[in-house]
Write a structure and sequence with these properties.
Elements: H1 2-33, E1 36-43, E2 46-53, E3 63-64, E4 72-73, E5 87-90, E6 94-96, E7 99-101, E8 104-112, E9 116-122, E10 138-162, E11 167-182
């Protein structure tokens, strides 16, 4: 009987090890195609950090209608990157697109539209994968205009640009650009 339990334990342990290895390989593989980046801003006592994974355009239509074959169709949830949920960390209370937001670490996501994007700030900052967040944990949602440029951004880029009252969080991909004031 003891030998039978040893075999069961060995099989179970082997399955767990294989699953852990498969998940690790999958994460490394997807991060190679969409590398992770951390962007920091530190000026006048305001510290911001965004951590996101940067997918490439690769000749695809990124934003548009589902019928046109867009990778990110208008009106649908997007984790604002690839792999892990994009996170935003704030060292102090700020205004985010004119609305109050407490200091902390959050997941940030988007619902791109043709003329505006809805940006959501969610208290579940440590999520992996494509699944939508628990919207009841949203602490803030704002609509911001999207600007279309002639310049094509091949790889998703999020950065901070200083302003007189704080910084703009700027999101660029394909020919779309969204600017979110943080102060």
């Amino acid at each position: 009987m003891a030998k039978k339990w040893k075999v069961v334990f060995l099989v179970f342990f082997s399955i767990v090890v294989i699953l852990v290895c498969v998940v690790a390989i999958m994460r490394v593989g997807t991060q190679g195609a969409s590398p992770q980046e951390t962007v920091n801003y530190d000026k006048d006592g305001l510290k911001l950090e965004v951590v996101y994974c940067r997918p490439y355009k690769k000749g695809r239509l990124i934003f548009g209608t589902k019928e046109a074959g867009a990778l990110q169709p208008f009106g649908q949830y997007w984790r604002l990157g690839a792999n892990d949920a994009t996170s935003l960390k704030l060292n102090r209370d700020v205004t985010f697109a004119g609305r109050p937001l407490k200091a902390g670490r959050y997941a940030v996501y988007a619902v791109p539209g043709e003329k505006t994007w809805q940006i959501g700030i969610n208290s579940e900052a440590n999520r992996w994968g494509k699944a939508e967040p628990d919207y009841s944990k949203d602490v803030l949602t704002v609509d911001v205009p999207v600007i279309y440029t002639d310049e094509v951004t091949e790889q998703l880029k999020i950065n901070f640009e200083p302003t007189k009252t704080g910084a703009n969080m700027v999101i660029r991909w394909e020919n779309a650009m969204v600017v979110i004031p943080i102060g």
